Amino acid sequence: MTLRTQGSVPINLHVGPTWERFEDIRVGAATKLSSIRDGTMGILRLKKAQYRIISEDDFQKLYGIAAEADHLRRDVQLIIQAATIVSESDSEASRKMLQMVAFQISEKVTFSCIDGSQPLKLTDFELGEHDSDDSLVLPRR
């Protein structure tokens, strides 16, 4: 799968130049590093470590995707906390809070790294009232 960022710019990294010693890259570094363009990653292999070298643009794209993933992780934690409150105190107020949290998160979540991603939209059923016998069951930790 090719990841895409806002503006549908693909991130499709492929291996470019490989160096087996630091000295190989140090001598004539500007020329050698100029071969690492967008979409290309260089590899520096040393005895005990391996390093990937990417362009600034690719780094910024990957950093953006990582930031989105972290925001999504925090949003999921918030929904789980709200759902836990509903499961412990099944009241109209707690259900409304869960609904509000889910709605707010659905309005802001887009997956810019996935081509054609649109903000999540809750359906009328998901936003509507539910029967009093509807229950939320969460696994015990």
Question: How is this fold's topology laid out?
Answer:
Elements: E1 3-5, E2 9-11, E3 14-19, H1 22-26, H2 29-33, E4 40-45, E5 50-54, H3 56-88, H4 92-108, H5 124-127
Parallel strand pairs: 3-4
Antiparallel strand pairs: 1-2, 4-5
Helix pairs in contact: 3-4
Q: Determine the structural class based on helices, strands and strand pairing.
A: alpha+beta
Intertermini distance:
34 Å
Largest sheet: 3 strands, mixed
Radius of gyration: 23 Å
- Residue-averaged pLDDT: 76
Query: Per DSSP, what share of the residues sits in E-state strands of 2 or more residues?
Result: 15-25%
Enumerate the spans where pLDDT stays under 50 for 5 or more consecutive residues: 1-8
Strand order of the largest sheet: 3-4-5
Describe the overall structure.
Helix 3 (about 55-90) packs antiparallel against helix 4. The chain contains five helices and five strands; from the N terminus they run E-E-E-H-H-E-E-H-H-H. The chain has a three-stranded mixed β-sheet with strand order 3-4-5. A hairpin with a 4-residue loop joins strand 4 and strand 5 (about 50-55). Residues about 1-10 have low confidence and may be disordered. The protein has two domains: about 5-55, no CATH class; about 60-125. It is α+β, with helices and mostly antiparallel strands and about 140 residues long. It is about 45% helix and about 15% strand.
Q: What can be said about this structure in brief?
A:
The protein has 141 residues and is of the alpha+beta class. It contains 5 helices and 5 strands, in the order βββααββααα.
